[in-house]
Amino acid sequence: MQLPRWWELGDPCAWTGQGRGTRRMSPATTGTFLLTVYTIFSKVHSDRNVYPSAGVLFVHVLEREYFKGEFPPYPKPGEISNDPITFNTNLMGYPDRPGWLRYIQRTPYSDGVLYGSPTAENVGKPTIIEITAYNRRTFETARHNLIINIMSAEDFPLPYQAEFFIKNMNVEEMLASEVLGDFLGAVKNVWQPERLNAINITSALDRGGRVPLPINDMKEGVYVMVGADVPFSSCLREVENPQNQLRCSQEMEPVITCDKKFRTQFYIDWCKISLVDKTKQVSTYQEVIRGEGILPDGGEYKPPSDSLKSRDYYTDFLITLAVPSAVALVLFLVLAYIMCCRREGVEKRNMQTPEEQMKRPFIHVFLNLQ
């Protein structure tokens, strides 16, 4: 970042050379420069606080337009700049993000998105995420801090959770507020709960899915988990009946009556829907019985003897060399006997060869070489 000359000198009223003469800045000019520098540095080092709830989907968009004004030359109001910008995000003091937080940015010309489902273990603990923006044209950087203050959510976790697999969406498309709102509206229309929250969104690639071919605008697919406070509707449970289970085993689409309420915008794979009822899950917690901390007596320890019996490896060495050598020698003798002593057809060849050719020395040598 290039700073004014008076900033490098450390005095906003320092002399600045203009040709042969010099002049001192006026108070108004000084105030303008101070305001400009304060604005620049406040952008570079500004912190932003967000307050997501534990167990509820958190989405934060890293807007390119927000960072464009921090890279010199600073654009004027109304000026359009389309520099490629990428982002790097990490937990302060660590090389990567927390385990529950993911990040995606398709191209340097699209916005980045931080998303994930905060865990209850981090409630009340500020999570500081360092966001570094890189201008790929000028190689300038700008850094912000995102302070995530995780709050405890009411009725966490929601007792009834359903996970849908949407085939015609990528994760960044599904994270858009209007698209996610449309999906939650469709689910609410089918489920009719009083409280409905998006819990998590996961790309199909993170579940072992394949990268789609770049044809026919194919999508990666995305898993969306939602939670509600009322039991599952009859429509959502239709996938559990034997007829639909049989169709799923035969890789056929099941017959779901409420699918038409999603089909206008979302293509759901009903065979991959997952319904979880937290109220019926049996707790596997086992009470830990504290003991005295003393191991049972296993007798006196007897270490191995210090004097080890010596072993002669000379015989093993001879056997290791002698056996392969003997086998190789036998094979060599057999091959030599076959090649040199078992030459059949020599007399027959000589009888069929004209006598004039046999008298020629070069032909005789050539035949003997064959």
UniProtKB/TrEMBL annotation:
Coiled-coil boundaries: none
GO cellular component annotations of the record: cytoskeleton; dendrite; Golgi apparatus; sarcoglycan complex; sarcolemma
Transmembrane segments: 317-340
Domain of life: Eukaryota
Residue ranges of domain Dystroglycan-type cadherin-like in the record: 49-157
Topology with respect to the bilayer: Single-pass membrane protein
Compartment list: Cell membrane, Sarcolemma; Cell projection, Dendrite; Cytoplasm, Cytoskeleton; Golgi apparatus
Keywords noted in UniProt: Cell membrane, Cell projection, Cytoplasm, Cytoskeleton, Glycoprotein, Golgi apparatus, Membrane, Transmembrane, Transmembrane helix, Ubl conjugation
InterPro entries assigned: Cadg, Sarcoglycan_alpha/epsilon, Sarcoglycan_C, Sarcoglycan_N
Main localization of the protein described in the UniProt heading: membrane
Function comment: Component of the sarcoglycan complex, a subcomplex of the dystrophin-glycoprotein complex which forms a link between the F-actin cytoskeleton and the extracellular matrix.
Family named by the database record: Belongs to the sarcoglycan alpha/epsilon family.
Protein name: Epsilon-sarcoglycan
